[in-house]
Every structure is written in C-alpha cells, then in structure tokens.
Amino acid sequence: MGEGWVVRKVWVVGGIAVGLGLSFVMLLVVGVYVVAGNLANGVGSGSVGLAKGAVPAAYKTLVQRWGNLCTALNPALLAAQLYQESGFNPNAVSPAKAEGIAQFIPGTWATHGVDGNGDGVRNVWDPNDAIPSAAAYDCELAKYVKDVPGNVSENMLGAYNAGAYAVIKYGGVPPYQETQNYVKTITTLSKSFAAPVTRVDPTQQAAGAIAFAQSKLGTPYLWGGEGSAEQGGRFDCSGLTQAAYAKVGITLPRVANDQYNAGPHPSRDQLLPGDLVFFSTDRGDSRAIHHVGIYVGGGYMIDAPRTGAVIRFDPIDTPDYFGATRVTEDGAKALPTTV
C-alpha cells in the first residue's frame, strides 16, 4: 500500500462520507467485522488456485482461504495486492507509516483491522490478522459497488484505490489515471500468482532473448554483473536474464525472485524456449529463489552459474529446480519497482 495507501484511505472514507453520508461509513466498518466473522466460521471456497511457490509457504493457506471470502476476490488477486504492497514482508513500514504485510496505516487499522485468528488481539504485524483484514476490507468495498455495471473485481479494486463513491458516481472504475493503472496492475499481476488452468501461450520475445543469451556464451561470471563496459560485459544469473529480455523491450526486475512474478507459470512438461527457469533453497517459497536461467529446450538452459564459471548450457532438472515463468510484457510492467 505504501505512500499511496494514505491517499487512498482518505479518498475511500472521505469520499464515502461526503457522497453517501456518515451512516455509510459505519455500515462499512460493521460489515467488515461481519464478513470476517462469517469466514472464521467456515465460509469461503473457490476454484482459483495459487501457482506453485508464488506465495511464501507461511502465508499460502491464509491467502487461499481468505482470498475466497467473496466472489469479487480470489486468492491470486489478494496475493497480488500483498506482493505489490509489501513483498510479503510482515515487518514492512513505509515512509507514510503504513505497517505490516498489508500496509495499513494506524488509523485505518483501528477502524478496519480484524482478529483473523480469533486470539482476542488485532495485531497489524501478524499476517494471521492483517491478511484477513485486507480481504475483509476488499469484500466490504465490493458489496457497496455490487450494483455498478462492469467487472465486479475491477470495480472493487477501483473502490479500494479511489473510494466506493467514485466508482458509483462514474458507473465503473473512475477515469483517474492512478486508479486505472492500479486496477490494471493488480489484475495483470494476479496472473503470476494464479495456477494456470490451460496451456500458457508463448511470447513473441522469447527467441530474441535466447539469441542474446547465446551471444554471451563463454563470458566469465561476475557477481552483480549487468554487462556494462565497466564490468567487462560480464553478468550474474539475473543480470543475464534481465539484459536478455531488455534486448527485446521487456524490463525485468534486477533480482531473480522478483523476476519469477513477470508472468504466468508453465509446468515442467509445458516449458518452451525463452521461459525463465528458477531454482530455490525452499521449493515452497519464491522469495527463496537463488538462481535463474533461460530455457532453450531439451532440458537445458543458458545461465551464468557462479564465480569461476562462464555463461554456458546447464541442465535444469536438479534437486533445487523450483519452476518457470513465461515472461509477458504486461506482467513485467505490473511488477513493483521495489518490494
């Protein structure tokens, strides 16, 4: 949520109060607790699964359960919001004093925080409370814009960013650039957190990325290398993949565990040349990814493996193989610059 969270919360509460009266705000507050209580009593099921390891194992069950709190929400959408706001860091604090994995500011938490784990305490630093609170807040906003034309999930996200009154006023996602971008970013990013239900389409840029990587075969590895002249044109693993996709006009994050979220995730038997393949010390957590390469087919990748080695072909079927990402331009653009 970060710095924009303060503005969004002001718009949400202020806009509602002005447009629909203070009673609307009180209904919203009460409704959050009612909805959260319903899920705590066993409500909540859905068909959207989470991609392997996309959500840290410690939070996967929470996100899967609370992401099904209402029909406007799903686990992948909730995961995208949490990743966008904090990178799944429960100790995150923004310059605007937003706190925790869901980045609530204190005043908003006091009003909308819920006791998700039923221990009698509402703790913004505890994901067991903060994740349910984020879901409950989303779903309560969805209730107030449910009669607005258009996609209910997009209207919910529009209300989250600009306020429910603005969504009602404009008959859909408000025409504010920030809000339009926010809705597109979260909906696009959610695709990298959802388990694919059909074969993932190939990208047009894959061949160009492979061609770049092939041109660097034999180049010595350099920790932190991004291929600059000052570095002698050398790369580390994620520096190579970043540069390969930059060559075809796609800007990837610098580190491997963020590159994992740049698109949907094909299974091992669906890999195509150009897919990024990842390796992790924890096969249940993408945040523990330590290596990335570019798949070229036949069970091999081009990668920059380690100090003392050169960019080369390596097999991907190793014990720490984690998964793959089919990079898309929109997926890369949706990634936060910092998490």
Structural notes for this entry:
It contains 13 helices and five strands. The chain is α+β, with helices and mostly antiparallel strands. A five-stranded antiparallel β-sheet has the order 4-3-2-1-5. The radius of gyration is 21 Å and the shape is elongated. The model is unreliable at 1-45 (pLDDT under 50).
Strand count, sense and barrel status of the largest sheet are: 5 strands, antiparallel
Structural class: alpha+beta
Can you tell me the residue ranges where pLDDT is under 50 for at least 5 consecutive residues? 1-45
- Terminal CA distance reads 11 Å
Radius of gyration: 21 Å
Kindly estimate the percentage of residues that lie in beta strands according to DSSP.
5-15%
Overall number of strands? 5
Strand order of the largest sheet: 4-3-2-1-5
Number of helices: 13
User: How would you sum up the global shape?
Assistant: elongated
Instruction: Report mean pLDDT, rounded to a whole number.
Output: 87
Order of secondary-structure elements: HHHHHHHHHHHHEEEEEH
- Provide the helix percentage: 40-55%
Summarize the structure.
Helix content is 43%, strand content 8%.
Secondary structure: elements and pairs:
Elements: H1 2-20, H2 22-40, H3 57-66, H4 75-86, H5 106-112, H6 127-144, H7 152-162, H8 164-170, H9 177-190, H10 206-215, H11 237-246, H12 256-259, E1 276-280, E2 289-297, E3 300-303, E4 312-315, E5 321-325, H13 329-334
Helix pairs in contact: 1-2, 1-7, 2-6, 3-4, 3-6, 4-9, 6-7, 7-8, 7-9, 10-11
